[in-house]
Each structure stands twice: as structure tokens, then as C-alpha cells.
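Possible regression after last week's pipeline update?

I re-ran a chain I had predicted before the update to compare outputs. Posting the input and the new output here so someone can diff against the archived version. Not blocking, just want to make sure nothing changed silently.
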Amino acid sequence: MQCHHPREGVHDPHAPIPVQPSVDPAHIRECFKRLIQGINPGDLELRGMLLLCDASGIELESHALHEAAEGLLAGFDGDWRQKGVHAIAIADKQSFQIRRDEHTHPILKDCCTLAKPLLDDSNELAAVLGLIYEPRDEREEREARALFAAWVKAIQSDLIQVRKQAEVERLAAMKHGYEEEMRKKAVLYQVAKQLHGNMDVDAVLGEIMSSMKKIYPSADIALYLTQDHSSQLPMVKPLQIQHGEEDSLMRAYMESRAVFTCEIIAGRRCQRLAVPLSGKQGVYGIMQVIIEEGLGSELDVPFITELAECAGAAFENARLHESSNIMIHELRLINEITRRLNQSLKPQEVFQFATDELIKIFKANFGLIIQTDKDNRVMTVQSSNITEMTHASFDLDYGFAGLMIESREPVIVSDYAQHPEIPSKFMEMTGARSMIGSPIIVGSEVLGVIMMAHRLPDYFTYGNFKLLQVLSGHIGLAMTNASLHAEVRRMAVTDHLTGLYNRHYLDEQIKLMQQRDPCGSLLLTDIDLFKNINDTHGHQIGDESIKQVAQIIKGSIRDTDIAARWGGEEMAVYLPRLQLDQALMVAERIRRRVEEETDPKVTISSGVSHWNREDEKISVESLFYRADMALYEAKRTGRNQVRIG
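New output (post-update):
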């Protein structure tokens, strides 16, 4: 063994030594403990202590070789590097011996010190083994050096083996980590392949849960979706929007990032991970994984985050595919309904067809369409599958319909039984729980309201709600078209001044009725001395006189009778299925009312003709000819009277 003596100024024992440990201190301690366990205290009489320092000179372990040595260093409060030999050994990688007469510290003046650097398999300094002892004679000193050399050799060999074993374990761990990483990448690839190959939303969600369960079988896994999305899977739940800093689900959703926490859940120490399911268009929900510590592998946050990102993109694709299919279906539906609505130009047919189709589309129990009459401040049910509601009228501000007319906004009711603040005869009469409604708006005018109801609460979806708004616009256009067509048709057959039908329409209707009725009567009326009224009062007053007579005629006949302006101041009334004596009574009633109610006062002359199925010749021309002759006779014989032709 080479011996060195400490020299003044060669080494500063207090200066930090920039040496990095090449072996884990835990491995060095383990080797030291095994060395101690191999020493039989009964075979030793040596009064000394074994010391172990790391590569920087810091003490790791110490062991008294004999009970008499336990107080050997009592009172020594200096750094171990003050023992001198350790710092020198670390710096020079050499063995040292300091004899008893060479120590400068008073506590060590009777001691000898041996030090030996321990090198790893790369010949780098790993630790220093030291022995401080009090030999009684030269023999004991020689034995101590021999024992120390054997101990150094044993611990050096053990250290190399430990280092090799550690390296094997490190490589095995690297291999396991690599294999685990490859397994996760394979899982991620397979999941991505399965997810992006599936366009069914529930199938995508099921694949996510199944994949996570394979990786973390002991974990509690759940998906929380936003309210825009729903699923029938038991592990998929709605995400409740809350505002709590401690809510990891809410934090993950609001901050769009993974939130990892360790916490006590039901008395168990658990790891919780909340990861957003994100796509390019937003966050669709949160995947939460909870695992009890000690029951499974640690949660791999980057891997789960990557899986969630893949799942979010696949979910978004599936939702977009589903939405596009729904949109295509809705467009076809809208196109078909619009086409069929526009086939009918009768308002009542439009109302009834629209109601029937909407009930089928939304699978509603009840439905109705209301039309507004703002002039009279009322709204009327034009069509419904509820007999009692059809043609019922309400004030313009009543119930949900009134609310929609006022706000011009649609309404969705999840459960009317829980919130009956707004009165609704429709909901109360049917016992319905849920309802969707939309105002029918064309341009800036609210034409009416559509309402669909169901007995179950929370029945209608947000998609139903949006679709009804779209359909209400098309129904409004169909209503407008039907109304315009009816108005054009009315104008085509109506006299502008009097509001009575025109002569052409009257001719057509008489022809139709003569084909099916058993009899009928015709009344021709002419205002007496009408030229004098125009000459005396002017044409405007003359027109007013014509309008007054027309109103008296309309107010004196049945709804089934047809009144028309024949020409100028002449008017005609066809009385279907009326016998001659009854027709004379109507003509006389009109004559009397005209004489009594007009201002300026005018009178009329009338001619009445009649036909029945037994006549030899039945024609419109014959009927008018005879009535016209009777009118001429009434004029000729004094006016203001009725004659039969």
C-alpha cells in the first residue's frame, strides 16, 4: 500500500470538490451494508470504525467494528473531510495511510487511518472507504491493513456487480418503457383507425371507453359531454356547467387542457385526470379517469391526452357526418313539404296539411296552427288534431302563442307541469308536458303560430326546435301564397266598387247549379232614375248609392245566395233551390229596405224569374231573359216595384 502524508497547502479540506457521483448512493450504501453483514464481530478485537463517503466526500454510512470503538470519535464535530485522508483520496484516486503520530486533530492523535477509493466499472470514482482504528501493537496494525484490503476488494467487487446489475435493470427498464411506449402507440394507432373509420357518434364514444378500459382496467372512467350532445351509453353523462375553482372537470373544459390531481376519494388516495375532448371547432366534453394508487399503473398523462385529442377529432368528424346527414334529411323534408304545400292554393288545405305533416315529423301527440287577426286583436286556431281547439279564438296576448307573437321568438317548454306560470288551454286540455312553438313570420309580419306538444317531459330536442323554425318560414310563405291566390281569385270574380261578384262568375255558378239542383230563382234589380242622381249629386254620390244598394242586398240574402253587379246600376241575385213565391218575398224585402235605408233616398225596380227541372228549356240565357223582361215591365208601369217574368 502506498502511503502519503498530508502536506500544508496541498489540499484545502473545506473546499467543495467538484466531483459528480458515478454510482447511485443507494447502491453504495447497499454494498457497504452487505460488507458489514459479512463481518463476524466475534473474530475481531480491532477497536475501530469503518466509514463510507460518496465521491464528493460526504459521509454516507459508518460502523463500529467493536463495542469499545463506539466512543472512538465522541466529541468530533468536524466535517469528515477534516480527517484529511478522504479529500486526498478523492482527488488523487490513491490509497492512503495516516499513522497515529501524523494526525493533527487531538481526537485522532492515537488513531491510524486507512482510506481507499472505490472505482466503478468505468474506473471512475464512486466512493471512498475509510478505517479509523487504535492499534495496540504492530501486529494489530498489520492485521488491520490486511483486513481493510480484503474489505476494499470485497466491496469493490460487489460495487461493480451492483453497478452491472443496476445497468441491467436500467436497460430492462428502458426496454420495458420502450415496449410500453410501443404498445401504447399501437393502441393509439388502432384506436385512431377504429375511431376515424366510424361515423356513428355512439360507436365512437364506445370505442373510446373500451380502449381506455383495456389500458386501465381498474380505473373509473367516464365521459362528460356538453348539452349539445347526448348518448345512450351508461358511462356517458351530461357535463354540468358550474363555476368552482376546485372542479377539475370545469377547469379542463374552460381552460381546454388536461387537469391532473391527487386527492382522497371515499377514504382512498386516488389520482384523477380530466382531459378535454377537443376538435377544431371546440371542446365537446371531458374524459375523466380516476384510479386508486397501488391498484394499477400510474396514469400516463401525455398518452391519455393524445388519446383524448384523437377521440375529440373523431367525435367531431362523426358529429359533422351526423349533422350533415340530418341536414340533408331536413333539406329533403323541407323541399318535399314546400312542394306539397305549394300544390294547394286554398288556405284551409294549407293549414290542415301543414299540421298533419308536422305532427308526423316531430312524432308529436298534439299540434295546431294559429292565425292572427291584428285588426280585431284576436288569434284563431285554423287547424288542429284536437277537435275542441279547432276554430277556437283567443286574445292576441294569450298564453305561449301571445308570447311568441309579442317577442317574435320561438319557445321550447321542457316540462309544463313544473313551470305552469304561463296559462295555456292547449297544454292544460291535452295534459301535455313538453312543447315547441314558433311564430310564423313573413317579412316583418307575424302571420300566426305553430305549436307541437307531447305528453312526455323533455321530449323535443334542440334539433327539433331549430327545424320547426325553418319549417315555420316555409309554411308562412305557403300561407301567403294561398292568401294571395285567394285574393287574386276573389278580385277576378268580384266587382271592385260593390264587392259583389261579377256577371261572368254569376253565369258560371248558375250553369253549375242548374246541372245539380231541382230549381232556382233569379232576381234582377235596377236603381230607378239613376241618371238624375248623377246629374243632381255627381258621380261620386251615384257610386255611393250603388254601394248602399249592394250592401242592402248582401244583408238581405243567405250565405248560399250569389249577388252580383250586372252592369252600371243593375244588380242580380241568384237564389238556389228557392221557389218563385219565396224569391218574391226576398225581392220585396230588398225593395222595401232600399226605399227606407238609402241616403240620398233611391228606389229600385226588380224582375224575378224561376226555373225547375220540369221546364222544357233550362238555360242561363232563358232565365236572364225572363227576369230582364219582368224588370222592364216594372220600370214601365211605375218603378219601385217587383214583377214576375
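Follow-up from reviewer: compared with the archived run. Confidence is low (pLDDT under 50) at residues 1-20, 78-85. Marking as no regression found.
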